[in-house]
Amino acid sequence: MTTVLLAEDDAAIAEPLSRALTREGYAVTVATDGVAALDRVHAGHVDLLVLDLGLPGMDGLEVCRRVRLHQPDLPVLMLTARTDEVDFVVGLDAGADDYVGKPFRLAELLARVRALLRRLTPEAVEVAGVRMELSGRRVLVDGAEVNLANKEFELLRVLLLRAGQVVTREEILREVWNDPEMKTSKTLDMHMSWLRRKIGGERRIATVRGVGFRFNTD
């Protein structure tokens, strides 16, 4: 699951934003000061940093500069109540990839998050004879193109991007249907059955009973 680190000390902003990001299917960790944010980044497994400029302890500019020393490719979206052009320039010069002024519209901020994360997604993924061309929404199995319905394509995308790992049912339902509460629904199993028929059965997609599914790498 994609992990977003939200570095924001204002609970009135952090709490609704954290809830919105969670609804979008991200795992969210909140840090309320600059030092904690930097420590969390260094601990690893952060895919996107949403960083408030005015953090206590260490401001967002300094956090961003230090992050860039060790993780130059980590996407950073900076938040600030300062909206002068010079502040935007300083933030970008410190290494931020994008900048949103407060107050912001939640829909716009979420769109900026999605845009930054899309940069991390490879154009094509190929594992064990299955190739997905993500931007072209094209799938080839052992060199032959197969036609997948929209949900089948999204299922395969989730599994291929984590090939060799077990992906839980809850994660799949959240990412493909945006509804982790469909735990008792047969919808996932039905679509998984259709997908398997098209790409080679259980030898490619294994069921891990009681947990989820795994795309086999051999």
Report on the architecture of this protein.
GO terms for molecular function: phosphorelay response regulator activity; transcription cis-regulatory region binding. It is built from eight helices and twelve strands. It is of the alpha/beta class. It has two domains: 3-118, Rossmann fold (3-Layer(aba) Sandwich); 124-215, Orthogonal Bundle (Arc Repressor Mutant, subunit A), CATH 1.10.10. The strands form three sheets. A five-stranded parallel sheet has the order 2-1-3-4-5, with helices on both faces. It has a four-stranded antiparallel sheet with strand order 6-7-8-9, covered by helices on one side. Strands 10-12-11 form a three-stranded antiparallel sheet. Helix 2 runs parallel beside helix 3 (60-70) and helix 6 (150-160) crosses helix 8 (187-199). It is elongated.
